[in-house]
Amino acid sequence: MSTTxxxxxxxxxxxxxxxxxxxxxxxxxxxxxxxxFRITDGLARDLGEDRCFDTPLAxxxxxxxxxxxxxxGFRPVVExxxxxxxxxxxxxxxxxxxxxxNRTRGAVGxxxxxxxxxxxxxxxxxxHSDSSEAYYVHTPGLKVATPATVAxxxxxxxxAIADPDPVVFLEPKKLYWSKADVDLPVTTAPFGTAExxxxxxxxxxxxxGPALPVALAAAExxxxxGHDLEVVDLRTLVPFDDVTVTASVRKTxxxxxxxxxxxxxxxxxEVAARVQERCFHSLHAPVLRVSGFDIPYxxxxxxxxxLPDVDRVLDTVARLQWDDExxxxxxxxxxx
Length: 336
Prior knowledge:
By secondary structure, the chain is an alpha/beta fold. It has 12 helices and 14 strands. α7 links the parallel β6 and β7. The radius of gyration is 20 Å and the shape is globular.
């Protein structure tokens, strides 16, 4: 059955609400409207306005309210309308949500999920296209997941809701309408496990969330020139799957990390450092990165220049040190 990522997320929320009375869903316009992206469409109507309901436009209040509910037996799932709208709630996340289990010596868990539509690719303006994952992964106590496939959207969200600790669930906006033949419910690889989406031998492309389709498309384009690239989908940024990542890089000997967010001090920098430390004697070239530029998110008219694309990935792959051919700048470009 052809299913979109948006439908998979809706089904995950619906099933969680139906199977566990402690689960509640709330946020700005998630009730009657069904959310800006209609991810919660029909939940209030079918499961009751006490299970899926609207809140005032106050993100710090939403997350603070969820924290109190999580400390008292509920499993709240909150939606932040857009990535950059989450910043007013950042103090709650960092100072309280992430620290509660440690603060209470493990006595009080915070089983809550903060759903955040994030990243670009939809022509959104400032405050509607941020890639804010680095803030969350740098905060001990938070788990961070970002699905890139329809099946993972369902499975990872169900796992996040069932988790005893807080999870920031980053949903790539531009993938909401991606489709796959998936029969729901579906269970994919466990939380904290990366997946190899394409096997290869020449180099490893590591990507997550909105960057995964770009990495896969680049690998297919490179294959036309006889270059066999492996593609690893991180799936969860915290916990991080060192085992799968290092095994892939040790096999191929080369690595490029692809991310949509700005490059400086980003997730890609952490991945590159971990790979360099663990795979140094297997590497034939430095670990390279492809990322967005280190600028505030640009206007929609120039968004396509800011976001990593297949050409930029291929150009970066060409910079790797190849024993048999020092200059591989002839790698096929797919656009003018």
